[in-house]
Design a protein that fits this description.
Length: 332
């Protein structure tokens, strides 16, 4: 249960504008008790969380159950703001006022119990409904999972579902004339949505698809839905970079082609990309160190523009170690 001190610690915004009192502590503790005592492992309750995956593979870790109807249908918010809690004669004495989106209807019977987790709620404090007047608190709720049976993206390679919990995704459009040249004076013929990306040629796009272990699905006219591995960048020192026993590749960073090395984690579907950037030298003046590091990076780790990014994938294609993805469907 909260004390005045512990409640203040998580309500800096309220405390900057108002004075927190024991009234707020008592009110919050009443709601914590009400919420936690109304949970059940046998069935979901309003205020519980759902790890929800929709038919497009989009994963929402903390979807909020806002309503439960008599027929067992749930009304959920995929990305909720902190919900306001109120007292109501129904729903075990609890009601919620929630903003956010999008909103969906789900079947209560298809939920699977996962466990418990802390969840943030709020109520109006002693100053009433006003600017910065909400007091936030946490209470234990049950967590459930729900994955749509209508998922549109099943890997043709592994047979597993693609979801944004484990993979990145992008819609890529092909925008070229009948000769495969860019339209309207643009340099590019492929444009990515959801996550930005542009490519000037089939060769560039294929190299990127291979580098990030992508799989493509047809998606409307001149479009494709692309699922690919997540990436984590690691800035390392020259010594650390040179000692990495990994294949060398190339990356475009801040309008420069840099040497890089990549490690592929099959378990997490993550590409770990290592390259020399700025590194910590606490014994040197910051500006002096940055100037010296710029020279080192430019001399030893920056390549000319004639070197393509993702060159390792291009070499794999040339040597027959990998095959490009057939993209004829996207070109109409």
């Amino acid at each position: 249960m909260y004390t005045l001190e512990s409640l203040k610690e998580i309500n800096n915004r309220f405390c900057r504008s108002h004075e927190m009192t024991e009234y707020d502590v008592e009110k919050v503790n009443e709601y914590v008790e009400l919420i936690e005592n109304s949970r059940s492992k046998l069935e979901s309750k309003i205020g519980d969380m759902i790890q929800y995956t929709n038919e497009y593979g989009e994963y929402f870790e903390k979807a909020h159950i806002d309503e439960i109807y008599e027929d067992g249908e749930l009304y959920i918010c995929e990305r909720p703001y902190v919900p306001f809690v109120g007292i109501n004669e129904n729903n075990n004495g609890i009601s919620y006022s929630t903003s956010g989106g999008a909103w969906e209807y789900l079947s209560k019977e298809k939920l699977t119990y996962v466990g418990k987790s802390k969840k943030r709620f709020c109520v109006w404090g002693n100053c009433g409904a006003c600017a910065d007047g909400a007091v936030e608190f946490e209470a234990d709720v049950n967590v459930w999972s729900y994955t749509s049976s209508e998922n549109k993206f099943i890997s043709k390679i592994t047979g597993n579902l693609y979801t944004t919990k484990e993979f990145n995704r992008m819609i890529i459009h092909y925008y070229a004339n009948e000769y495969g040249q860019p339209k309207d004076g643009s340099e590019y013929i492929y444009f990515g949505r959801l996550n930005n990306g542009v490519w000037k040629s089939d060769k560039e796009l294929q190299a990127w698809l291979r580098t990030f272990r992508a799989e493509v699905f047809e998606w409307g006219k001149n479009g494709m839905f692309v699922w690919y591995w997540k990436n984590e960048d690691h800035h390392v020192t020259p010594t650390e970079f040179d000692n990495l026993k990994l294949p060398e590749d190339t990356i475009l960073k801040n309008a420069r082609i840099l040497r890089c090395k990549r490690k592929y984690d099959e378990d997490t579907h993550t590409v770990h990309t290592y390259y020399v950037w700025y590194w910590d030298e606490p014994d040197k003046d910051f500006y002096k160190a940055a100037e010296e590091q710029n020279k080192i990076r430019k001399k030893f780790y920056t390549l000319g523009w004639h070197i393509p990014q993702n060159q390792l994938a291009i070499k794999e294609f040339e040597l027959g170690k990998a095959q490009p993805i057939n993209l004829d469907f996207i070109k109409g």
